[in-house]
Every structure is written in C-alpha cells, then in structure tokens.
What we know:
- The structure is a single chain.
- This protein is mainly α.
- Helices cover 73% and strands 2% of the residues.
- The protein has helices at 32-79, 85-101, 103-129, 145-173, 180-184, 192-222, 227-241, 245-265, 269-297, 299-328, 347-352, 355-358, 362-378, and strands at residues 22-23, 26-27, 175-176, 380-381.
- Helix 6 runs antiparallel to helix 7 (227-241), helix 7 (227-241) runs antiparallel to helix 8 and helix 8 (245-265) packs antiparallel against helix 9.
Amino acid sequence: MENYDLPGNGLPEQYQQYQPPVNNGQDITQDPVMLRKRIKKGYGWTGLSMILQFVFMMTVSIIASIIYSTVMTAGFMAENPGASQAQLMEFAQELSQSVTTDIKYNNIVNTAAYLIANLSAAAIGIAAVKAFRTKELFGKSRLSAKWIAAGVLGALGIQAVSMFIQIIMIKLTGLMGISEQAASMVSMSDDILLNILILFYFVIVAPVTEEFLMRGMIMNSLAPVNRKFALIASALLFGIMHGNFNQMFNGFLLGLIFGYIALKSGSIIPSIIAHMTVNANVMFCTYVYEYKVLEASGEDAASTFELIHFAVFMVIGIIALIFFLKRNGKIVSEDMVTPEYSYEIAPTEAKKLTWGLLAKCPSVWIVTIIYLLIAIFSVNAV
C-alpha cells in the first residue's frame, strides 16, 4: 500500500486537509484507509470500555455476594448445628433479601466495584487505543479558578433544570424511572458510618472514576475528528450508563457540561470538581430535606424547601452558565484534552467519520441495549 510522506501529497480530495498528528512523540502519518481504521478502533473501544465496566461491576458484585453468603451461612450453621431443612430455607430467603436491601453492604460493594470497574475499563481502553497517556488527562487547566467556579455553578443549574423536568414527567406518567433499591442507596440517616460510606461513594469515588472513564478515555477516543461530536456522543453514553430513566436524561445534560468544561480546560480535573459538587448537592438535599426536615415538619414542608433550594440554584446556575458559555464560546478544534490525538479532515468526509462510523460499532449497540434493558426493568409506579 502506498505511503504519503506529506499531508495532501497525492491524497484523494476529501483528505487534502488531513494533518498527520504526533502520538507519544512519534509521527503516525498514514493513508486514508489506515486512518479510518484507527478512528474506528477508538470508537469501538468506547463501547468495549463500557462493556468491560459492566462486566467488572457484575463480577465484583457476584464475588462479594458469594463471600457475604458464605460467611453468613457459616455463622448460622455454627450457631444452629442441628437446623432443619425448613430453617435453612427460611435463612436462605432472609439472606437473599438482606443482600438486596442492606444499604451499608451495597454501598461498600458499589464503592469497590466502581473503583475496580471504572478505573480498569478506562486504563484498558487507553492502552488499547494507544492515542494518549493517562497523565495527559490530569494536566493543568487552561481555565482560571474563576471560570471553573462559573462552570461548576452552571452544572448545578443544569442539575436543577433536570430535576424539575423529572418531577413533571413523574407527575404526567405516574412512574419512577429508578428502582426502589437504587433510590435507597442515597438514603441518609443518623448512622454516621453509613453516611460516610454514602458520601465517599457518591461524592468521591463515582465522580473521579466516572470522569476518568467518560471524559478521560471515552470522550477523547471519540474526539480526533470532531470535538462537538465527541462531546454529544460521550454525554449520550454517560446518560445511558446510569441504567435508569431518571438519571439518563440528567446524565446526558450533565455530561454535556462536564465534557464542555473538560474540553475548554484541557484537563478532566475541573470536570471532576464539577461532578463532585453536583453529587454533593444531591447528598445535601437528601440529608437535610428528605431526612431532617421530613422528620421534623412532614413531607409537604420537605418537598417545598427542596424545590426552593433547586429553584435558587437553577436561577443562579443558568446565569453563571450563560456567562461561562459566552466567555468560552463554541467548541472548536483547539479544544482538546489530548491535542496530539487530533485529525484535520475535510467537513464532508468528517461526517462519515463521526456518527456514521460510530453507528457501525457493534460494541456501542451492545452496551446501549444492555443499559436500556436495565432501565426498562427499573421502572416502577410512584
């Protein structure tokens, strides 16, 4: 196959604007066919990374369930050496229910699963794509602290908008898009240890590992041809990854602002900060309004105060977001967390190498179907 030493030298017209990138210090100039294969490989690994994440999550959960059941069964047998078949069956039923409803156990398992699944899937994806290095994702932000703060406020505003839309949809349909078990995972109480576990999982582990996977690995793997495409596609996958209809729409909107912050700053650190703040806001509302105020003043008062809280953040956040977007402008080719993984291609050809090429990736369809099925089975009546 013929090699082209210089950009546009003898290339078909649609590739005349192609500028060969430098990857890890090495020139990776290649012909259009190889270029397409390289781009397709990156897209394929976005879906494969999410499949690996799901498999790792399930594996950790199953192993934890086996260990938990084995330990609890051994303890029961030691205390009841002459237990009858009926007693064993009753214990097995109670054990099965406790694995599902034990909030403390589930938070410990989810924390371990998220750490292992997200970090491993992202690391494997980055190694497979071979387009950038992990440390490049955590570089110094091009945005000042003032504008990072504005972006964080904007994310809080988007979160509030999403919450009001969810309330409207629940009122119209009478359905919750999230299972009772998943909703109980954020239930705060006076149990200090449980609250610490919940906060550690939702405010630290989930934001850091999700940003590393979604904005670090996946968005960057989708970004070499078109940054806007990468932003929207990664936000869609981020929403789908949540596996319930309540959070899919919320995840998509927040994925847009998190991705925008990462692209404009050239680092995923500011998007991690925004993600942490958004999750911390949910935890604050859960503890203060859905627990303390609910117990002290009743459901109506709790709902009213929570709505006021989000209404305030919606107004402040949207104003901050307008200034933030106006200051930083549209997504352009220079907006890239890993600038060396970037291709300059004619607009007509770029369209074929974005949505059209992504739609042909089996791994993306597989992971989408998996999480949509999970979301369908999570729907329940209010």
